[in-house]
Amino acid sequence: MEKVREILKAHVGRAYAPYSGFPVVALVEAEGEVFLGVNVENASFPLSQCAERNAVAAMVLAGKRRLERVHIYSPRGPIPPCGGCRQVLLEFGGPEAEVVMHGPEGYEVRSLGELLPLGFKL
Length: 122
Fold this sequence. Notes:
Elements: H1 2-11, E1 25-30, E2 33-38, H2 51-61, E3 69-73, H3 83-93, E4 98-103, E5 106-111, H4 112-115
Parallel strand pairs: 3-4
Antiparallel strand pairs: 1-2, 1-3, 4-5
């Protein structure tokens, strides 16, 4: 877990968060590989992109479709993913997938099922 925390901390500075001052980096573990994403804000806030969804997009681009775990780090954390990210993560991970929420002082682990108990599935 400490190696993952170091990777997350090393990349949080790449987040683009000039409006909120709330940088976030996510690392998705999927099918034996890892994929990173950072949040990218926009002056038109609804156009901003969350780190978790950017990491999932990198995973999908690499041809992966099933995530086992997602790690989220913010210097203001540990923080849970937003509602939209919870739904996207559920789509690719299912309720048993782990969400590890890291902050400067430690981390918390929850399942997606705990974070989104009535998630939408087709």
